[in-house]
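::Amino acid chain::
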Amino acid sequence: MKTLILSLFITAAISFSLHANNNAGDVPVVDFDTFAPRLEYDNDTIYVINFWATWCAPCVREIPAFEQLYARYRDQKVKVLLVSLDFPNQMDSRVIPFIEQHNIQSEVILLDEPNANRWIPIVSEEWSGAIPATVIYSDSFRGFYEREFKYEELEEIILPLL
């Protein structure tokens, strides 16, 4: 019984830390198994999960669209998560400075999972591994997009789901 309670407490703590808005210095580094549940929540919220990296020019160009989406819908049941695919050893030299420079308000995590061949098809069988890539889902919709977005294109997908 104590083990079950401890296990539930640890799961809740991890879940809470992954859901909290981050400040630039608070970017969690997670493995895929820790991140994977975020791909399949079953509730009345719309999830927008963008895979990006600081070295990816199309990713950098589209970040303002995700930030605008976050700002517009943060008080509604829309969650934006930016999943950095930068290397963990680049956290202080690239990721945090990027977040600070661009004043990123959306939640950011860094995915530290070297075996992309294992986790990419779990995210989507359609995914070649190229970024930017985005998963948008709700309880009645799931879409995968291996492309760069503009704000209006994101909103076109989100509005019918609200």
Summary: Residues 2-19 form the longest helix (18 residues). DSSP finds six helices and six strands in the chain.
